[in-house]
Write a structure and sequence with these properties.
This protein has 20 helices and 22 strands. By secondary structure, the chain is an alpha/beta fold.
């Protein structure tokens, strides 16, 4: 996030796009509710009528995968109505005049044909955000999990640059992180294109720095992503270690993923429970859970926090850092002789410019947000206040493009996926709590009542949902929360493995899968035979 969580109740206008915050970030969402109670306005762009849409001033129920068209049209209106912050653009941006010329042709009427929102609502949203003294953008994977995910994010940045809504209280472009410490993982170098501290692997100076630190040269090229790694399983990659991720359930095109993992000579999984992925592993190494671990977590607002073990770990469970370091030592690698999380973190601080002013003892109270470039620095709650780290903010000239897979006569319905409040991610943890299971014990497919009639389905009945990658059976729930022509399900339940169907393309820059826009066919079926006895409540097949 460019701005701290404390800024969330300070905007005049809040623009939430692709984020079901009241279900996925319910604590943070309370700050937005405070802002609304204070008089702020809110725009929500989401295909579904989520909880945020119920309290928004403008709801833009855009078609899945059409974000760029909407954002281009909003930029068009802002420019046309003279709401551009010309001073900010002159001082701090590049290619602004080119961008203003670029968006002249992208009218709300043009966008309405693509994103299926009314031109009037697009205009209203643009005037609200463009006219705000403090406008803040919040988004999550509803923006990024498309073949145009990078374009979507850059389009949001264009809006912020156009209006000067960066570097000030109550503004910013703010991605809300979806799992604990996902920000910290990136900070520590768990990315194919960066060393720790987001130092690019293609920079010779960075390579030399880490060669001196680690004693090993690395090629000046970006490493492979997980998508590429799974494609090469059994054909170039013969062993894999998966740490704290239930890949079989979370990744797109489950059949391809399962085939890939079973093609390996050796699969090692480090996790706290026996997940679906762990069940197909050759070796499972038990890790400690959060309350059993001394370590560090960096959260969505870049706040670096100490974790302290409250209880001893069960059985043979060990911290992740211990497992990885001991494996490396047994393989003969030097530089992994760590005896504590403190030593690991202090090494990170010595190598990362964003953590350079920190150490284990200094983060004792969790008061610093990176970058903290030197000892004595107070931290940086709000980015870009005086300048952009890389110079000027650059406007991107983007055009709309369709999802890789589009609707057809054979597959006429959009499937989009996400999360639900009671169950977290793949239920690895929440699925073991009886109280939570009581709140949500099964997955259902949200279908608009008109589509139920049109497709011959039945509320509470069963549907077969299919596409060329596979099929599954799921119980139907009639609701106008999902729009006509679009259905929704979470990927949380093992017996409704929605990611059998997803996987229609990847963003060419990040290789992020298009999990939010997937054409499917639906037809009514009877209840699965398993309902008569004990077992999963869904059929799963390969077409």
């Amino acid at each position: 996030m460019s701005n701290p969580l404390a800024d969330m109740d300070k905007p005049d206008v809040i623009f939430c796009i692709g984020t079901n915050m009241t279900e996925c970030h319910p604590v943070a969402a309370t700050r937005l509710k405070r802002a609304l109670a204070r008089g702020a306005k809110m725009i929500v762009a989401d295909p579904r009528r989520i909880g945020l849409a119920e309290i928004a001033d403008v709801h833009l129920p855009l078609r899945v995968g059409s974000d760029v068209s909407l954002l281009l049209a909003m930029a068009h209106v802002i420019a046309r109505e003279g709401l551009v912050d010309e001073g900010f653009m002159a001082r701090r941006t590049a290619h602004g005049e080119d961008f203003l010329k670029h968006v002249e042709r992208y009218t709300p009427e043009w966008a309405a044909e693509i994103c299926e929102c009314s031109p009037e609502d697009i205009e209203k949203a643009a005037l609200l955000y463009g006219g705000a003294d403090r406008g803040a953008i919040y988004y999550t994977v509803g923006v990024t999990e498309h073949i145009c995910g990078v374009d979507n994010v850059q389009s949001l940045c264009n809006l912020a640059l156009l209006t000067g809504n960066l570097g000030r209280e109550g503004t910013g472009v703010n991605p809300m992180r979806g799992q604990n410490n996902i920000q910290g993982a990136g900070d520590a170098g768990a990315l194919p294109n960066n060393y720790p501290g987001f130092q690019t692997v293609t920079d010779p100076a960075h390579r030399e720095k880490f060669h001196k630190a680690y004693g090993r040269k690395v090629d000046l090229e970006v490493g492979m992503t997980k998508v590429t790694a799974l494609d090469l399983c059994g054909d170039g990659i013969h062993a894999m270690m998966i740490n704290g991720e239930n890949t079989l359930v979370t990744d797109p095109d489950r059949h391809h993923c399962e085939h890939a993992l079973k093609s390996l000579d050796c699969l090692i999984v480090i996790d706290i429970f026996m997940t679906d992925t762990a069940r197909v592993a050759d070796v499972v190494l038990p890790a400690t859970a959060w309350a059993e671990t001394d370590g560090v977590c960096t959260n969505t607002e870049r706040r670096v926090q100490r974790l302290r073990a409250a209880v001893p770990p069960p059985g043979d469970a060990k911290p992740d850092w211990w497992i990885v370091s001991r494996l490396a030592q047994r393989m003969g690698w030097k530089g992994f002789e760590f005896e504590s999380a403190k030593e690991v973190f202090n090494e990170l601080c010595s190598l990362s410019s964003t953590y350079a002013g920190l150490d284990w003892d200094r983060i004792d109270r969790g008061e610093y947000q990176w970058p903290v470039p030197e000892v004595g620095h107070p931290g940086t709650p709000r980015l870009h206040e005086e300048r952009f780290e890389n110079g000027r903010g650059i406007f991107k000239m983007l055009d709309y493009r369709d999802p890789e897979e589009t609707l057809s006569e054979e597959y006429p319905v959009w499937l989009t996926t996400g999360r639900r409040l009671p169950q977290y991610h793949t239920r690895t943890q929440t699925g073991r709590a009886a109280g939570i299971d009581y709140l949500l014990s099964e997955e259902t497919l949200e279908v608009h009542p008109d589509d139920i009639v049109r497709l011959g389905l039945e509320d509470g009945g069963w549907a077969e949902m299919s596409n060329p990658r596979g099929c599954l059976h799921v119980k139907v729930r009639a609701t106008s929360k999902s729009p006509r022509g679009t259905v929704f399900a979470s990927f949380a339940f093992e017996d409704v493995p929605v990611n059998v169907l997803t996987g229609g393309g990847y963003d060419p820059v990040t290789q992020t899968a298009a999990l939010k826009a997937c054409p499917v066919a639906l037809k009514p079926v009877g209840p699965p035979p398993a309902l008569a006895g004990v077992g999963p409540q869904s059929g799963l097949g390969r077409l």
